[in-house]
Amino acid sequence: MSLGGSRYENLVFVPLLVTGAAFIVSYGIAVGRYRLYDIDVVISKTVTYLGLAGAITLLYAAVVVGPTVVIGASDDGG
Fold first, then answer.
1. Of the candidates 39, 38, 36, which has an alpha carbon nearest to the alpha carbon of residue 26?
2. What's the rounded Cα separation, in Å, for the pair 3 and 53?
3. Model's pTM, two decimal places?
4. 8 with 33, same domain?
């Protein structure tokens, strides 16, 4: 094995990548077709958590970054 490696080394992972992608797609089709999970509940909770995460991020920015910007703007730099 040389330092540069073989040009075909990365081809070993192609079947794994294709198999993994096929599994994920087939899993999604099965969930959608046979309603294996209550997907409406999952989507609803995901949207709720994303909204809460966004609100917490904005609150953090207002509490931490806001005063820093105000104090930094009023500082003469002296």
1. 36
2. 46
3. 0.46
4. yes
